[in-house]
Design brief:
With about 375 residues, this protein is mainly α. It is about 70% helix and about 0% strand. It is globular. It has 16 helices and no strands. Helix 8 crosses helix 14 and helix 8 packs antiparallel against helix 15. The protein has a domain of about 210 residues: Orthogonal Bundle (MetI-like fold), CATH 1.10.3720.10. About 25% of the residues are buried.
Length: about 375
């Protein structure tokens, strides 16, 4: 009887809000108190004060057809022609102009395998094969020297492909290292536990800029004479070590949230320690910490822009190089808005995927 009543009430529910319900929502959500009323009025005023001007600058008074900087300076809005003129330098840095199809193709390979990694149907050993093919293909395309491709040293890599590589390798290697550090910090062996604690607290106690400076300036001083390590590789290692320390603490929080009964149940089945972690504990712990882990991934993707301080041509440094041209001076806002949009697309995509993954994993355990 109750089920029939519920169905009938749902059938009779109006598809649109009535005037009374709209007024009720406004009164409860926007004008429920003097403070909320003041904040609502202030927000509306800010929207009316700034949004029309931004729309005029971004769209209505903007241009993409200017053929020179002189024409752009006559426009009252944004001059997106500077993006049209400098987009290859911004996206690919100082990579040889006639060879820029190679970093574009390498970037598409990386994006393709990243997208495949998000599809659960490919969560098996075939994914490792796809990653191996993509990494080898990207390396061949970027370096060249084989199959008739001109050799390009990595000091000339730059732009979006380099940013994508630094963040992808940083996440891919920092994640398993973070798991090992989290397990080591919870270990019953004093030596391993102490080493993990010292490493995590030491790395988390210094900013990433310090690690990048140390990798670029101080590390070569401790190497044997005649032995050199590429600057790009040193920056990548610093990013991995930095991200792993933060991931370790996040994963440790997930491990602590697992009920003790899960460990006892695994012991009763006669599973070894690594079987317990791989089959029972870690899958639950990682599911719990999906939101903070994705937050770390997003932060790491944005933090790759800090390599600009050691002279690596990532997306930010390539954008700054585009501003060196005297003819296009004064249009930095358009260029920085462009690279901000690129960062936003990648970060927002990661955020939306994490939300869908949370929902998918949560519904699997509902009855």
């Amino acid at each position: 009887m109750s089920a029939t009543t519920n169905v009938a009430s749902q059938t009779q529910a109006p598809s649109t809000w009535s005037g009374a319900s709209v007024l009720h929502w406004l009164r409860t959500q926007l004008f429920s108190s003097p403070l909320n009323t003041l904040l609502t009025i202030l927000s509306v005023w800010l929207l009316f004060a700034f949004v029309p001007g931004l729309v005029d600058w971004f769209l209505l008074n903007a241009t993409v057809s200017a053929t020179s900087a002189q024409e752009c300076r006559k426009v009252t809005g944004a001059c997106w022609s500077v993006i049209v003129e400098k987009h290859r330098l911004i996206l690919f840095g100082v990579y040889p102009y006639e060879e820029q199809w190679r970093p574009l193709l390498a970037m598409l390979l990386m994006l393709g395998v990243i997208i495949l990694s998000g599809v659960r149907r490919f969560w098996n050993f075939s994914l490792l094969l796809f990653w191996a093919i993509a990494l080898v293909g990207a390396a061949v395309l970027m370096w060249g020297g084989v199959f008739g491709l001109t050799y390009v040293e990595n000091s000339r890599w730059g732009g979006l492909p380099l940013t994508l590589m630094l963040s992808t390798f940083g996440i891919a290697f920092a994640f398993p290292l973070g798991i090992v550090l989290a397990l080591g910090r919870r270990s019953n062996m004093p030596a391993i536990k102490t080493i993990c604690i010292v490493y995590i607290e030491l790395i988390r106690g210094v900013p990433l800029i310090s690690l990048l400076f140390m990798s670029a300036v101080m590390l070569p001083l401790f190497l044997p004479e005649g032995l050199t390590i590429d600057k790009l590789l040193r920056a990548q290692v610093a990013i991995i070590l930095f991200a792993a320390a933060y991931m370790a603490e996040t994963i440790r929080g997930g491990l602590q949230a697992i009920p003790k009964g899960q460990f006892e149940g695994a012991d009763s089945l006669g599973l070894t320690y690594w079987q317990q972690m791989r089959l029972i504990v870690l899958p639950q712990a990682l599911k719990i910490v999906i939101p903070p882990l994705v937050g770390l991934f997003i932060a790491l993707f944005k933090d790759t822009s800090l390599v600009v301080i050691i002279g690596i041509y990532d997306l930010t440094q390539a954008a700054k190089a585009a501003l060196v041209d005297q003819a296009w001076r004064g249009f930095s806002i358009e260029i920085y808005v462009f690279i901000s949009a690129i960062y936003f697309v990648f970060c927002y995509s990661m955020s939306k995927y994490s939300q869908s993954l949370e929902k998918r994993l949560a519904t699997e355990h509902q009855r």
